[in-house]
Every structure is written in C-alpha cells, then in structure tokens.
Design brief:
Blueprint lengths: L2 H17 L10 E8 L11 E8 L4 E6 L5 H8 L7 E6 L2 E2 L5 H9 L1 E4 L11 H12 L3 H14 L15 H12 L6 E5 L7 H18 L2 E6 L2 H7 L2 E6 L2 E7 H6 L4 H7 L8 H4 L15 E10 L9 H10 L3 E12 L2 E13 L5 H12 L4 E7 L1
Parallel strand pairs: 3-8, 3-9, 6-7, 7-8
Antiparallel strand pairs: 1-2, 1-4, 4-5, 9-10, 11-13, 11-14, 12-13
Helix pairs in contact: 4-5, 4-6, 5-6, 6-7
Length: 384
C-alpha cells in the first residue's frame, strides 16, 4: 500500500469515527453502570463482577485495588472491550461501548492505551521498532511514524536506547518502552495492568513518577490496577477497593487510607501499618489500671491517629507541651506520619508518666481529652 493510500485509509477511519458519533478524543471519562460479569453459564456459576457502579473522572489517576481474584483485571479489560459484561453498561465519554461493532472497536482501542505487567515486547525488534509497530499496522505514513516514535522515546527517556533489542534493557527500561508504545495513538485513557508488579521498589518509584509526568503533560485519564497499596498512595487521586467482584469502598486516596471503613480495605492496608516496637508491646498490659498497679509512677501508652479529615497539620510541639503539663514525662514510642495528597496522616504512640498519688481517673481523662483536641482518634492502649 502506498503512503498516499495509507494516509487515505487513516482519514477514512477518522471520518468513520465521526459518523459513528463516538466522542472525539481529549475528554476522557469512564462510568461503569450496573456491571456484572459471569464467565461460566448456568445458575449458581461464580461471578467475576457483580453490580459494579463506578465513575472515573477525566484527567485523574484512578487506582483499582483488591486481592487476587477480586475482579480487578476483568473490570479493567471492560474499558477497551477485551471483555464484554454479562450485564450493565460501560460509558466512555458518554457513550456505551458495549454495543460497538468490530470497526468501532478498532477505533476505540486506538484511543485507549494499555501497559502490561510483563511488557509484551517483541524480542526480534529494536526499541524503536516495538514502539512504531502499532502505527505501521494502522497505516500511518512513514514520516509521521518517525516523528511520533522519536518524540515518545524522548518523553520516556529512551532516545539513547532506540536501536537496542529488549534483551539489553532493564525491567524499568522495558516498561518505559511499553508506556511509549501505549501512547502512539495519542490516547485519552491509559490502562495500567499491574504495571509495576515485576519491578523493584526504586524502579517502581521511577515508573510512577513517569506516569504522573505523562498525566500532567498530556492530560490523560490513567486507570491502574494493583495489589500494592504503596503504589496507590504514591500516584493515585482516587481509589476503588474490590472484594469478591464488588466495589466495597471508594473515594479520594487520603480519605480511604486515613479512615478505611471496610474490612477488606483494612486488610490491604495492613502492610503499611507499623506495629508497636517489640520492647514496648512485650511490657504492655490491659487498660484496667487500678487493681494491679503498685504505688509510684504510672506510665500509660496513648495511640493517636491522624486521618487527614481536619485538613490540619499535627501541632506536635504544642501537643507535647500540653501533655507535659499534665504529667511527669512524655516520650515518643512510635511515629508513622506522612502526607497523602497534602494531608498529614498516620499514627503516634506516646508514653505518658504521672504519679499514682495523683489518682487514676482524673489524670487519664485529662490526658485523653487533651490528646483528642490534636488527633482525630485517640485510644489508651494500656500501661507499662
């Protein structure tokens, strides 16, 4: 096929897209409406998804997380119609894509890039050829292919690797090639299927930084699935938690991380929660103080949680001063505070000492009341 006929074919595709009333690229939004998916037929067959309702805003990085088998990959593959729902609708830019015909599906998938966990690069082709392949298949003229591929390799930081085969690349470099290839058709949605699961932590951080930069530069909507809560925390604006094919929790990342409501969310967050240091947990006793305390100094542990809901920075200096005025001594046992989407979240565990001669009920109540004026949740863990 000549370059002219290739260009004409490309033009015809675009005209067909417009005639089919599929919304033009550059404004992305995805809505799942009453989505169910059942792979096996028959009454009682297990469902991969069940009545999923979810809206993904344009221009956001949206994370979908859940345990293995929760339905994450199935939900993601509904966006570009690699899977078809058993029931429900998937709206992209306001149009239900479930009923698209074969020609319309080709055009839809050109507007939705996809990045895979295991890169899926062709070992016999160079970096440049791997990125160029989708454009060649689409029939784009060679000068346009050259210009597009060179620009994308520069965007992902691989211009100097253009002639290298995949076997000479690191895992992070291979994923950069995969990202460049996913961007060749100027998509308005980018799907990431466990895109960092095969990478080490340092490389994962670099890839996530690249995705954030791409979103900023190109205005993409990025939907990623992962089982790693640290990935969600670092890159996403919003998150949905899947459990047994259903959305059990969704919202802004700071809100879901700061105050998880569902048991599945708390379980997934567990690896990010730091336990009390062993030297303290071994000495900790239950909160019932009176019957077992000997005369003298009493040391209790206060657990302060910061969810970010108050939009306030923890005033730790003032906190220590106020608690110190009510006690003999305040010590920091454990600290895990960090900002998520500009809101400070995490946990402080403090050891607070006071004399038994002061009594029990009054000092403890005063300490708890004071701590609650600084933190969103306060609990007395016990005494040591």
């Amino acid at each position: 096929m000549s370059n002219l006929s290739e260009a004409q074919a490309w033009t015809n595709d675009v005209e067909h897209l417009q005639q089919a009333s599929v919304p033009a690229p550059a404004i992305a939004s995805v809505v799942f409406e009453g989505i169910s998916k059942q792979f096996a037929a028959g009454e009682g067959a297990p469902r991969a998804l069940h009545e999923v309702n979810l809206s993904i805003e344009r221009g956001k990085i949206f994370g979908i997380i859940g345990r293995s088998g929760a339905g994450k990959s199935t939900l993601l593959r509904l966006v570009n119609r690699l899977e078809t729902p058993t029931a429900g609708a998937v709206h992209i830019n306001g149009r239900d894509v479930v009923g698209l015909n074969a020609a319309e599906l080709v055009l839809l998938r050109r507007r939705i890039g996809m990045v895979f966990q295991h890169f899926n690069l062709l070992s016999a082709k160079t970096v440049w050829e791997n990125v160029a392949l989708p454009l060649k298949i689409a029939g784009l003229p060679k000068p346009q292919i050259r210009q597009k591929v060179d620009a994308l390799l520069e965007l992902v930081g691989l211009s100097d690797k253009r002639d290298s085969p995949p076997s000479r690349l690191s895992g992070g470099q291979k994923q950069r090639v995969g990202i460049a290839r996913a961007l060749v058709h100027d998509p308005d949605i980018l799907l990431c299927d466990e895109a960092t699961s095969a990478l080490d932590p340092e490389t994962t951080h670099a890839i996530l930084a690249l995705l954030k930069d791409i979103r900023r530069r190109l205005g993409l909507t990025i939907i990623l699935i992962t089982h790693e809560m640290a990935v969600i925390r670092e890159v996403c604006d919003n998150v949905a938690v899947l459990e047994a094919g259903q959305v059990v929790e969704t919202g802004e990342v700071w809100r879901v991380f700061g105050d998880p409501r569902h048991a599945a969310t708390r379980s997934l967050l567990r690896p990010l929660v730091h336990d009390l240091p062993e030297e303290w947990s071994a000495r900790l006793r239950v909160p019932e103080l009176g019957p077992v305390l000997s005369p003298g100094s009493i040391e209790i542990l206060l657990d302060l949680r910061f969810t970010g809901a108050g939009e306030r920075e923890p005033e730790l200096g003032l906190l220590f001063n106020r608690l110190g005025a009510l006690s003999q001594k305040v010590s920091l046992v454990h600290s895990a505070l960090e900002p998520i989407q500009g809101r400070m979240q995490g946990r402080l565990v403090l050891a607070v000492s006071f004399l038994r001669s002061q009594g029990l009920t009054s000092p403890v109540a005063a300490l708890l009341e004071t701590a609650r004026s600084f933190a969103d949740k306060v609990e007395m863990l016990g005494y040591v």
